[in-house]
Amino acid sequence: MQLGLVGLGKMGFNMRERLRRAGHEVVGYDRNPEVSDASSLEDLVAKLDGPRVVWIMVPAGAPTRQTVEELGGLLAEGDLVIEGGNSRFTDDQEHAKLLEAKGIGYVDCGVSGGVWGLENGYGLMVGGEKSFVDRAMPIFDALRPEGPREEGFAHAGGVGAGHFSKMVHNGIEYGLMQAYAEGFELLDASEVVTDVPSVIKAWQRGTVVRSWLLDLLVRALDSDPELDDLRGYVEDSGEGRWTIEEAINHAVPAPVISAALFARFASRQDDSPAMRAVAALRNQFGGHAVHKAGS
C-alpha cells in the first residue's frame, strides 16, 4: 500500500522504516531535507497515486491544524487523512469537519510505543468511520505489534475516540511512572536496603508490579544506579492535563493521575512559594524553626 507521511521526527522516522520493512511504499515529508522524500507538502501529494492516504505526525495544536488545512487544499475528494499525533480529541472533530466539506476522509489515531516502536510495534487506538479504518487497515497491521490484532489495535469509536483513548492511556502512564518513582525514592532513602537497583531488577519477574515501564527503569539504573546524572525536572505533554479535565467533566475521581501531574509541576520549582507559606504558618502558630532564604 502507498502512504504519504508528514513529520519524520523520533516517531515518524521509525514508523516510515517499519512500514517499508513490511513492503509498503512510503513517501515522507519533513522540514529537515536530510530525511525528507519530498520537497514540500505539495510535492508529497504529487508523488502519491489517487485515492491518496496521508498520515500526519507533527506536534499537536497549531502545527497539526495548519497541516490539515494545507492538505485540505491539496488533496482531492476520496482521499484520506490519518492524524497520528497527540491532538486533543476535540480538535479531531474540527479537522474532520473541515475535510468532510471537501469530500476527504479523516481518521484519528493515538500511537504508543515511543522510540521502541520500530522493533516492538506500536499500540494503536483509532477513531473514525469504519470504511475509512478498513481502508487503512494494511497500514495499521504493519505498525501494530505482531500477534492477534486486538492486542495492540482498537477501533475505539467515531472521530476523536482514538485520541481520547490515547489521552487516558497517557494519564495512566503518569500515575504508573510516579508510583515507580516514589518507590525508588523510598528504597533509596532507607538505611535497610543497600542495593536499590538489584531490588527493582528483581521485580521484573514473577511480581505483580512487573511491566515494560519497570524494565525501562531498570535499564536507566543499569547506566546510572543513583540517577545522579539527571535533574529531577519533568515536563508534561498536555495529555495528563486533558485527562484530568475530562475526569472533572464526567465527575470521575482520578486522584492518582491528578497527583502525578501535580508532582511534575512541583519538580519544576527550585523554591516552592506554597511551601514557603506552609513554613511561615508553622512558625507563626507553633514557633517552629524556619530556614531563611540563602542559608
Describe it.
InterPro entries: 6-PGluconate_DH-like_C_sf (IPR008927), 6DGDH_YqeC (IPR004849), 6PGD_dom2 (IPR013328), 6PGDH_C (IPR006114), 6PGDH_NADP-bd (IPR006115), 6PGdom_BS (IPR006184), NAD(P)-bd_dom_sf (IPR036291), Pgluconate_DH (IPR006183). It is an enzyme of class 1 (oxidoreductase). Residues 162-295 form the 6-phosphogluconate dehydrogenase C-terminal domain. It is a single chain. The protein has a seven-stranded mixed β-sheet, with helices on both faces. It starts with a strand and ends in a 9-residue tail after the last helix. Helix 3 packs parallel to helix 4. It is elongated and about 75 Å long. With 295 residues, it is α/β, with parallel strands linked by helices. It contains 13 helices and seven strands. It folds into two domains: 2-158, NAD(P)-binding Rossmann-like Domain (Rossmann fold), CATH 3.40.50.720; 167-267, N-(1-d-carboxylethyl)-l-norvaline Dehydrogenase, domain 2, CATH 1.10.1040.10. It has helices at 10-21, 41-46, 62-74, 89-100, 117-120, 130-135, 137-143, 161-189, 196-202, 212-223, 239-249, 255-267, 273-286; strands at residues 2-6, 25-29, 53-56, 80-83, 105-112, 123-127, 153-157.
CATH superfamily of the largest domain: NAD(P)-binding Rossmann-like Domain
Number of E strands: 7
Query: Order of strands across the widest beta sheet?
Result: 2-1-3-4-5-6-7
Instruction: Please state roughly what percent of the residues sit in beta strands, choosing from under 5%, 5-15%, 15-25%, 25-35%, 35-45% or over 45%.
Output: 5-15%
Give me the Rg, rounded: 23 Å
Which ranges are low-confidence, i.e. pLDDT below 50, for 5 or more consecutive residues? none
The structural domain count equals 2
Helical percent range?
A: 40-55%
Structural class: alpha/beta
Give the averaged pLDDT, no decimals: 93
